[in-house]
Amino acid sequence: MASHTWQKSSYSGANNDCIEVRTAGGLVELRESDDPGVIVRPPLFAFTGLLNSIKAGEFDRWE
Fold first, then answer.
1. pLDDT band of 16, cuts 50, 70, 90
2. I need a labelling partner for 47 at 20 to 30 A (CA). Which of 3, 25, 31, 63 fits?
């Protein structure tokens, strides 16, 4: 990700109920699309750990 533009998942619909991400100055930034005034800047290792957990299916819902 080499952009300063906010990006959201291609799985998100047209409504604003998702998490957006961007990189800025070597930092990862996250915000909610429906409340863009609050920006979270997690440490890179924490963000990488979150992505790895998501990819591993640790947050999959079983219905």
1. low
2. 63
